[in-house]
């Protein structure tokens, strides 16, 4: 399970918080980090929405605030979405995926007002949040009721940190198969791969006990088989959630953000070189 520190919340305040979805008396919010210096007359920018980890159980929207802050400084509109979780709303992973689709659709629907290019919308996340992002990109089930389905809920690119991509019976981790055993084939990104899957970058520590290296290697292979790009970065000796910010003292945060930046730039979502501390990244990779 991934968590976020008090320092993260205080240091990386969003520019705006909006409600993107209402389910009964539940209001789901989106924390928005706006690109610095962007004006309404400027050309549309790329956008990204992140989904936090927490085993589909706990809510930690601030986990990706540092990533949002950084990407906004580089010229993207970056957002971190809350979604329904078991310990707060009594929900299942299915509702998590449904809310993820709603969040992507909301961003695409409101792209003109936000100054975002609706054809350059990425989704990212860590662990269970990585599953939400990957499922929004691959699975066809769990579309929300009452929304305009003519507006796609499928992201155009993926940035995934130790993501749950295999919900099958051989998947390891915190009961991720048991939680979806009745419909696992419908909700598993690995088993819904099809032509047109968006390009993706994945990050994983080799000592992750919840997501195996062989699992993400198989995900990459299946992506390549359907003609989609999938960049995979593994980090020796690192555990689950190794990539978190940790109040600015984690070289693996720098390293993964550095590669995510280059990946997004290669797709035309960013311009120029990464501004994350390259010296720390280079020292780590030597």
Widest sheet, order of strands:
1-2-4-3-5-6-7-8
Q: The CATH topology is what?
A: Rossmann fold
Write the CATH homologous superfamily. Alpha/Beta hydrolase fold, catalytic domain
Topology, number of strands: 8
Q: Quick one: overall form?
A: globular
Radius of gyration equals 17 Å
Mean model confidence by pLDDT: 90
**Total of DSSP H or I helical runs spanning 4+ residues:** 10
Largest sheet: 8 strands, mixed
Task: Report helical residue fraction.
Answer: 25-40%
State the separation between the terminal residues, measured CA to CA. 29 Å
> Which CATH first-tier class would you pick?
Alpha Beta
Q: Do you know the CATH architecture?
A: 3-Layer(aba) Sandwich
Report the uncertain regions: 1-10
Please identify the structural class as seen in this structure. Answer: alpha/beta
Order of helices and strands: HEEEHEHHHEHEHEHEHH
Question: How many structural domains in the coordinates?
Answer: 1
Features:
10 helices, 286 residues, alpha/beta, globular, 8-stranded mixed beta sheet, Rossmann fold
What does this structure look like?
- It contains 10 helices and 8 strands.
- The longest helix is centred in the middle third of the chain and has 17 residues.
- With 286 residues, the protein is α/β, with parallel strands linked by helices.
- Strands 1-2-4-3-5-6-7-8 form an 8-stranded mixed beta sheet, with helices on both faces.
- The protein starts with 5 loop residues before the first helix and ends with a helix.
- It has a single domain, classed as Alpha/Beta hydrolase fold, catalytic domain (Rossmann fold).
């Amino acid at each position: 399970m991934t968590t976020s520190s008090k320092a993260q919340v205080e240091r990386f305040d969003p520019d705006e918080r909006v409600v993107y979805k209402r389910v009964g008396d539940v209001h789901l919010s989106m924390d928005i980090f706006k690109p610095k210096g962007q004006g309404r007359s400027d050309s549309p920018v790329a956008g990204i929405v992140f989904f936090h980890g927490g085993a589909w159980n706990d809510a930690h929207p601030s986990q990706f605030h540092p990533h949002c802050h950084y990407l906004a400084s580089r010229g993207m509109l970056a957002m971190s979405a809350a979604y329904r979780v078991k310990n707060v709303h009594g929900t299942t992973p299915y509702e998590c995926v449904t809310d993820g689709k709603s969040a992507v659709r909301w961003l695409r629907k409101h792209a003109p007002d936000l100054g975002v290019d609706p054809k350059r919308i990425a989704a990212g996340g860590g662990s269970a949040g990585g599953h939400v992002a990957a499922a929004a990109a691959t699975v066809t089930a769990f579309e929300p009721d009452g929304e305009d389905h003519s507006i796609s809920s499928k992201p155009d690119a993926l940035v995934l940190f130790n993501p749950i991509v295999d919900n099958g019976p051989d998947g390891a981790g915190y009961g991720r198969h048991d939680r979806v055993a009745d419909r696992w084939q419908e909700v598993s990104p690995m088993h819904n791969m099809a032509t047109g899957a968006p390009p993706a970058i994945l990050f994983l520590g080799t000592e992750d006990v919840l997501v195996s290296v062989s699992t993400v290697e198989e995900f990459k292979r299946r992506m390549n088989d359907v003609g989609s790009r999938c960049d995979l970065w593994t980090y020796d000796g690192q555990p689950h959630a190794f990539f978190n910010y940790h109040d600015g003292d984690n070289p693996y945060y720098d390293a993964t953000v550095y590669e995510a930046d280059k990946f997004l730039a290669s797709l035309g979502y960013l311009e120029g070189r990464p501004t994350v501390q390259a010296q720390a990244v280079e020292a780590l990779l030597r």
